[in-house]
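Example 3.
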Amino acid sequence: MKEDVNLLNYNAMTTGNEINYTGSGVWSPSQKFVFRICFVFFLIMIIPTDAKYYQKWVTTDWKHLHIRDMGSLSGSSFKIIEVATKRPGGNDTGGAPEKKQYDYVIYPETGEYGAWSYINWFIALVLGVAGAFIWTFLDRKSKNYNQLYYFLEVLVSYAMIVRLQGLTFSKIFPSQMPELALTQLNTPFGDFVAQKLYWIQFSFVHNFERYAGYAELVIMVTLFFRPTRAIGAALSIAMIGVIALANHTYDGGIHLLASFYIVGGAFVLWRYLPPIWNLIVHEKNTALKIVYYPFSRPWEKWFRIAFKSFIFLFFFVVSAYLHWDNYRNDSYKVPQNPGLADARGLYTVADFKVNDTVVPYSPVDSLRWQDVTLEKWSTLSFTVFNTFDIHGEAGRGKQYKDIDRTYESAGTGGGRRHFYYEIDSINKILTLKNKNKVYEKQVLQLHYERPNENEILLNGNNEYGQPISMVLIKRPKQYLVYQDRSRKNTWTP
Amino acid sequence: MKDGISTVQQSISNIEPAFKKAWTGKQKFVFRCAFIFFTIMSVPTDYGYYMMLLHFDWLNLNYRHLTELTAFFNPQFLNIYSESGFFGPASYINWLLVLGIALLGALFWTWLDKKRPSYHDLYYLVIVFARYRVAYAGISWGYKKLFVMQMPEQFEAIWNTNLIDFLVKRLYWEVLGVAPVYEVWLGFAEFIAGFLLLFRRTTAIGAALAFVVFGNIAVSNHAYDIGEHVPSALMALLALFVLWQYLPYIYRVLIKEENALVPVYYPVLNKWQRWIRTGLKLVFNFVLVALFAWYEVKAVRTNDFYKLPNTPGLADVSGIYEVSLFKRNGVVHPYNPLDTDRWQDVIFEKWSSMGVRYVNKPQQMAMFSAGSYPRVGEPYDGRLHFDWRGDLRRYHLEADGTFSKESKWPRDVKIDWEFAGMQGRVFYYYEANTVNQVLQLMNKNRYHREEKMVLEFRRPNSKTIILKGMDDRKDSLYIVLNKSDHQHPLLNKK
């Protein structure tokens, strides 16, 4: 008889959907305890504890909404302790300055990307365990947490959606990894840090960046709807989990953000795993048996629809529009002020003088400039044979000013220097400022003349105050990276 | 109470007869098509593949042979020598061809065989073909990355070449090569997808993984013009075919939230059929999984990475050198980045390779990944070419159909990884006579191997090398090289 009842229940639950929404099951004490830990842990990880976050919803300039605002409105990660480095320039990771106030800062010896960077997760877990103990002590009656489980799963899924939208749409409209600058193209492979190389692999083939963006959009959409949530969770582990791993191996900076998709994805996927295993490995008759909250009362129904619509409109539609607009008009990592007209190119340096003395061509001179590049925008870069601190910034963050938009220069070493410049076209003077924050005090003033379209004469002072002058001669260069596929494959060095 | 039991029984009995029911005419036709299509796609059908097998040195088998056995074959009887034929939609022309053959075959088959009610056994068999095809491909591509062969350790030529001098596919390669841990992880994903496909119970998981992994590889191949998109997409397609029978049920459980049972059919085999099955499984799995792994380990232990030369170079010379003094026929050429008579810089690798950066010395571009560019002497006429040997490049066949003589060159001369998909330097393989202090150099590029130099070398100190001798222009050279102190940030691990 007992067996029959079980069978009946089983059938009712699998065919009749949400009849029994509180769930008749009794969870074991350990199941309940683990759930309590997860509940507190994820709440701490997801719900912004910073009052500034909530103020943002009021203070944002809604008429001129910008992708910067989307970033701050999509939550803040739980961070009590800032993990930093003492390497000069290493902490300059971009981002809005008001986000950068922390009570505690640590400088682990393993670097800011090692195990120590998970310290805040660990704290959240400890709080989760402590919370679970208190909860266990207070709540001795509950047989199960089917409803809370459902809501927590929704919360984790939506947190993943909201945190992903910026990265998704800045890939679909390729601005997260914008077009490479000439200076980057003319820098040897070994002179980039590993992290930078990982980023710029998307910069030279935007279709791959778009593809990654669409994959992330699939994750967002599948997480958004209940029936496809398991697929979204599995994909987020498979894809963003791999990104997390890549960030660790390449010393990338967004490993924490990416790792959240492993933990969150695993949490959401967890309850689907046994049935799927049963179905495809054991090849047995299977049903999910998930208990949902019924949303049967009218206000619940309306609230659910309103909430879902809001998430969809704001974090899918508005976000997509803003990112498209940004990509079209002011790609946020690319400087926007135009450089010297028709000067974009790679230049050979001739007749270089310091203190009016000619310094002959030499690849191993610490003062003589080599391989000057001028971009479409106002950046001038050159190489000298010397060692400088690399600014640790990945060129991340959504900067306002051109001088702070450092995707073109961050993570590049090998004696390559990058200067932002302002043009005084009346007096024909360029005022150059070093884009590297470690050297931000270095300002150069160079008078320029353009006797013909292939030559630029510069004279003024270098970063050490010495008078310099030089002739820049444009060098024609075959860009293999962008070479037409059907070209004959001979090259001329 | 009785009702409860009967519903359950009903739901089970609904599933059972699926095997007994006769297929509809349409189902049978589709199946016949699919059977022929996926069999041709899974089993080597191009004659060139077998020509390659004939040329294998079977007594000295190594991991290269096993890679070629499993990683690189797909029907490619038609080639369109055009941009789209190499990179775009036209490169999939052979899929259409095979589909056409399958349609014709199915018509013929339908005419011949009017009685069979269903083809459960053959369906199982064609899935086995596809399963093992993808499994061994996944394992062999996985091994390439697991043993850090596909993107091997980097070296001076890569670190000292500007980004613009790489083809995008080589850049993609080297970005992966920067992080061997990541490469091993990707290799593991390929390996495990293939490995799971070897077992019946884990077939669905393996197929799903293989679909994601190979699908992703196909997309990146398209994005970076790598050239292996057709075989990768084929693996994804085969994986999808294997997964097909599970999909409706996964959909029912996950999305419709109904209960479901996958009605997988297993053929009943008699005794000798079981013996054959076990025998085949043992032989193939032993050779293509176990022995293959052993060969890979052996290769790593003997420093036989197929992309890296392994003849040791001069001791302690590796690095990039500035040319501080350059005399051609006794005339000093001062440093000038535009001087065609002067060498700009010189690279010595750990192995016996020397790279020279010239100004204006045109060279044929060396390529990697077989199918991606026409070879020298091959037409690029946009026309359709038929060849029943399949993709000649994969099987070491020359354009005129003869077997490549390239393999007769010494191992390290053949390896062009220092400059494949890159431009900027000319690389020379050298044989060093350390007693007389003479280097015999030969341009490694297979189209310029007649360019030879003989240079005496002296090393007054560990930072300086003096070269003296005759170059391929028959000029006498006198060169003083100074090792550069340049520190690459990429190598400067905290």
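Chain A has two domains: 15-329, 345-476. The longest strand of chain A covers residues 345-354.
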